[in-house]
């Protein structure tokens, strides 16, 4: 009997364009809670490249990973900088 190994699904692998990231974050913001949005930021940052995002916002890659971890608690300023580095804007409506 043959066994197959199934790789875990990673949304980050499918966020290929800035528009993909924008739509993904918009959906997370509209349907999720704060933790879900931070998780979505983590996914989007991984898709774009954690090193690149960290450099753009002026933190270390390790610090960025820590901020966006499941038990992380990033400051609003950090969230705003990440959103901006991803080419998006925070809008209240």
UniProtKB/TrEMBL annotation:
Residues 50-93 form the HTH cro/C1-type domain. It comes from Methylomonas subterranea. CDD domains: HTH_XRE. Gene3D superfamilies: lambda repressor-like DNA-binding domains. It holds the Pfam family dnstrm_HI1420. This is Addiction module antidote protein. NCBIfam families: dnstrm_HI1420 (TIGR02684). PANTHER family: SSL7038 PROTEIN. InterPro entries: Cro/C1-type_HTH (IPR001387), HI1420 (IPR014057), Lambda_DNA-bd_dom_sf (IPR010982). It comes from the Bacteria.
